[in-house]
Amino acid sequence: MTMAERNRRIVLAARPEGEPKASDFRLVEADVPMPAEGQLLLRTLWLSLDPYMRGRMSAAKSYAEPVAIGEVMVGGTVCEVVESRNTKFRTGEIVLAYTGWQDYALSDGAGLRKLDPAEAPVSTALGVLGMPGMTAYTGLLNIGQPKPDETVVVAAAAGPVGSLVAQIAKIKGCRVVGIAGGAEKCRYLVEELGLDAGLDHRAGGLGDRLAKACPKGIDVYFENVGGAVWDAVFPLLNMFARVPVCGVVAHYNDQALPPGPDRMSLLMRNVLFKRLTLRGFIVSDFAAQAADFRREVGGWLKEGRIKYREDVVHGLEKAPEAFIGLLIGRNFGKRLVKLR
Amino acid sequence: MTMAERNRRIVLAARPEGEPKASDFRLVEADVPMPAEGQLLLRTLWLSLDPYMRGRMSAAKSYAEPVAIGEVMVGGTVCEVVESRNTKFRTGEIVLAYTGWQDYALSDGAGLRKLDPAEAPVSTALGVLGMPGMTAYTGLLNIGQPKPDETVVVAAAAGPVGSLVAQIAKIKGCRVVGIAGGAEKCRYLVEELGLDAGLDHRAGGLGDRLAKACPKGIDVYFENVGGAVWDAVFPLLNMFARVPVCGVVAHYNDQALPPGPDRMSLLMRNVLFKRLTLRGFIVSDFAAQAADFRREVGGWLKEGRIKYREDVVHGLEKAPEAFIGLLIGRNFGKRLVKLR
Fold first, then answer.
1. How far apart are CA A317 and CA A300, in angstroms?
2. Same-domain pairing of B280 and B155
3. pTM score
4. What CATH number is associated with residue B117?
5. Burial state string for B170-188 with b = 16 or more CB within 10 A and e = fewer than 16
6. What is the largest CA-CA distance in chain B?
7. Are the Cβ atoms of B259 and A263 closer than 8 angstroms?
8. Which of residues 217-236 of B touch A (CB under 8 A)?
9. Interface check A257 vs B, CB under 8 A
């Protein structure tokens, strides 16, 4: 680090109405902060972009406090320790942190996890071996509870959560149908990940194609999307189907409810008559399973039984555009920002 | 039994459109059947009337096969063995059976359970110690999972399922709010059953009154009703709330969806953001817990910790009218038909 270097930070400039736009973000510069006794200076190597960040941009209560206007956007990061005044960390160590959309940040070491680059590429700590991977693993196994020969349908199946859900369901012996946007992603689902079918939700007639791909109905639906994908899945759910609700990205930008008829009672009738389980979750609900997750998914990764894909954008200044694209499915794999 | 006696049977005459009416049923007479070797002749003492029977009257697939036109309406019964050609049963024994809306039926003994009149009134085998009781016990404990000091709201709380749900929730140390139709039932909930509040869904402003009765929100909602009651409960659900869906009696007669806006996405967003669990069930899903149920609820009953109420109609010929009334909340307690 040269003394002349500046800390670039992307702050929330305005709360979006509907889809976020570039002007909702602002790049500002500040001095690189100096660590006090007990602190570390962290330099961001990788920034994770994830759909949940849309919720943090709104004033409405979501999982966590909203980001304040003028504050740095939050986010998971992989950082290098560039200066340490904390005896537990040494310069040059790589850590998983939550320092947000900026080049540098201070830390007192709390909540950091050291990463071993010899074990796996450090960027995987933000993807397949990180929050998205654990979301997939815990949501599918705790709520979805897939059994051999059952049919599992996964929304956003080419994304970091969906692609792992789909592959774990294959490992568990299920028929697995992935839904994604575009022919290229669907080809990837079948040819690279080995799913039984990959359906493009942008092509017409999703309901009919899904029914054909699921001749025995749907036992587990991993919900990442909502909207038209859910509408196609819902009539095909089997008795005792389980629906882990992980995301409804189609609705994050909604500003009003769609016109009727009102299907609330239709849903409740189906929950009853088909004895469905719908359950929402976020990864922290299963925090106690972190060690199991890393051991089991780490093992599958080493054995070559699961694959992952990263979608890397270069440069912090590209983060807003990359994030806006993520919300409309422009990513293909785990979207990461690689900093200098 | 005199040889001249006839077997009166109530058969399904027509499939109802919307609310069932008297002409959807027909009383027919047949000979009293004669048991063959290995069979019993059962005489009905008590017939249970339950909301699920509405589903059996429709051609649409529900839990079980619909009753065919011209067939005897199905239903749980308490019967006396009046003739036995089966070594396992003696004349005069009382059994729990499923012989439907008729005076007499044959059985080979399969599925019968002998009842001991010294243990509890035999009619309770159709109510608090029977299917409705076990529905309450298993649904509340397995899906609702009430914890001390949580707030539990129970729909149809003066009915056989709801009143036991409410009382078990009190035993578990919860704040319990019951919803029922009419001031008399609401008074019963508070004064007889000891609930913290009883709210009349027929009076106006249920949402506001419910919010006042649940100052800390709702952790468990036992759904028996749907419709306006669910609409009042839904916005008050807390983070991690659980909703056992046991019935949606407000919708059993629905013939079309209500007008919009469409709240499907609103529900899914809330499932996600509040990490709700919605799960439908019927009592047979937890059949393995029958012994636990009878031991535990039987114990509470003997200790006087739970109360029950029966709403008895006299004469098989009254069953259709009594059933039609049940679907619109005219019962106060477990509705039973006492036969001769």
1. 35
2. yes
3. 0.90
4. 3.90.180.10
5. bebebbbbbbbbbeebbeb
6. 67
7. no
8. 223, 226-227, 230-231
9. yes
